[in-house]
Amino acid sequence: MKKIIAAFIAGLLFSLGLSVSQMVNPAKVLAFLDLAGAWDPSLIFVMGGALGVTALGYPLVFKRAHPIFAERFQLPTKTDLDARLIGGSALFGVGWAMSGYCPGPAIAAVGIGGEKTWIFLLTMVVGMWAKRGFDKMTMSEPTHAT
Question: What pTM, to 2 d.p., does this model score?
Answer without folding.
Answer: 0.67
